[in-house]
Each structure stands twice: as C-alpha cells, then as structure tokens.
Amino acid sequence: MQIIKRIIIFFFRLYFHAIFKLKIISNKKKWIYIFDIDNTLADTWPSFLENYSSEKERYLKLSVFLNMRKVILKASQNKGNRKVIFLTARNYFQYFTTYSWLKSNQIPFSFFDLILTHGAEEKVKLLQKFGEKGYKIIFVDDMTYNHENGEMKYYQQAIKDITRSKVHYFDVDQINKFNNSNYNNG
Questions:
Q1: Sign of CA dihedral 124, 58, 70, 176
Q2: Could you tell me the strand order of the sheet in which 31-35 lies?
Q3: Of 47, 50, 71, 113, which one's alpha carbon is 20 to 30 angstroms from that of 102?
C-alpha cells in the first residue's frame, strides 16, 4: 500500500509541476499573482489548536482574511493584464478540499489555477526559474510554520532564495500589516 501511495504522490507532483509551468509560460505578458493559502489567505494556524475529526474538516472550516480576499478579487477582475494562481504546500490528497474551500469563499479561479506542492522549498524552485526568465511574478506567501507551538519559525533558506530572485516577494510582515489594516479599496 505504501508503494502505491508513493507512486500516486509522484504523479501528483509531476502533474502539478506541469500545470504550473504551463500557466506561467502561457502568461508571459501578464503580471502573474501567486498566492499562498495557509496563513496568507486563510487564517490557518489557530485551527491546529482545535479538535477536528479530519484534516478535510479542518481545512473546510478555515476563515478567510477578508483584506487578502479583496486583493485577489481585484487582481482577478483585470484578466487582460493579470493572472491569479494559488500555490500552496498541502497534502496532495487535499486538492478537492482546497478547491472547495476557495469556491465556498467565492474566490474566482479555474480548476487549473490551484497548484499544490510538497513544501516551501519546492514552491521557490518553481518560481525562481520563471523570475529569471523575465516573467512578471508577484508572490505573496508568509513562509512561516510552527505557529501552533507558540513560536513562529521561518523557512529561512526558501526566503533567502526567493528574495535573491527577480520575483516580487511579499512576506509575512507585509501580509500581516495588510490583513490587519482597514483596506476598503475593492
């Protein structure tokens, strides 16, 4: 059973990498907005302190940061100049749960605009290639973990790598300021 699971995960990874690359390549002249979900769009970390019957239930009950949702809605309106993609590190088997959560929060996107990865480092490796090739990418991701244990930690190497690239990166401090502001433009 473990071998079958590994094979499925391998094919999920190949699929998501291929879709991501096609989405980026097909949008060379547009600004591409790439949003993380957990602790960027969704208020995720407090959910680890509560009891849920499953990971699916926990994901479906996450609250959305309204200011970030407004930004995504605004970016999604101008399809001629912008493309919105969600790139998040989650269990591949939670794709449809994540898809359902985005839809339930009335966030416009297509089936292929949601990409799951294994972790922060994998996200950055995907992004770096395209930033260096001149694609106009805005990446919004907190790049943090361990909130539920009382000490927020950073994916230090991933942050260093993305800030050295040509990708426009918005970090946890910028995200928190924005999510806690009185943003009323949209």
A1: negative
A2: 114-117, 82-89, 31-35, 136-140, 168-170
A3: 50
Residue 186 lies in a domain: no
- DSSP assignment of 97-136, as one string? HHHHHHHHTT----GGGEEEESSHHHHHHHHHHHHHTT-E
Domain assignment of residue 184, yes or no: no
Q: Which domain holds residue 110?
A: 2-179
Q: What is the pLDDT of residues 84-118, one digit of tens each?
A: 999 999 998 999 999 999 999 999 888 889 999 98
Residue 185 is assigned to a structural domain of this protein: no
Q: What is the CATH number of the domain that holds 79?
A: 3.40.50.1000
Note whether 171 and 143 are within 8 A (CB). yes
**For 117-148, how does the pLDDT look when each residue is reduced to its tens digit (9 = 90+)?**
989 998 998 888 777 777 788 999 999 999 88
- Give the chain's domain count: 1
Does residue 34 form part of some domain? yes
Instruction: At 147, list the tokens.
Output: 């909130």
